[in-house]
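Hi R.,

Here's the chain you asked about this morning:
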Amino acid sequence: MLLDKGAELEAEDKLGETALKKAVKFKLVEAVKRLLQQGAELDSKHGILATAWNAARIDKAIADLLLNTKGAVRLTLSSEEEETVDDILYEESEHKRCKKIKLLDSSVLLHAVVNGYNWDDGPEAMIAAFENPACATITLLDMYELMDADYWLKMDEEEIAESEERKRWRMLAIQLKEKLADEWDRGQSKRM
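And here is the predicted structure, written out as tokens:
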């Protein structure tokens, strides 16, 4: 009824949430669909993390309704895609795992690999994902969070020097931070 009366689709509540983000939050699929039909804005001036798609990521079916969001990746995988991801994640050889990651040309599969990765297995596979040109910004953001990059950036040099693996984790944290800062700067200059 409110939509039929011309309600402002992008009005925000005191938390900065729009009707679309509220519908996602409360898993109101029909409301999400209706808001999309009415032209609710998918993108946010604050980037992918401030979008309804990002809020919907815990419910893949709802997130996939919002795939037209700039920077979003499909979260629901086909059975063939799941097999490909499992093949990579359960590969015994680190060298073969890294090679398979380097050969991926799908941001969807890279995202699934990063989010399914056992981070106790070391940095090499995630370095391969980072270096893959198909790696989406949201995947880089997830990597930063999943590896707790701030922890590696704050660790003192003596602790880092204790092992080659720690050096590799630190290097990845630095590269992620730099690349994400570059992405942010590019996004800001496009808005001006």
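One quick note: The chain has twelve helices and no strands.

Cheers,
M.
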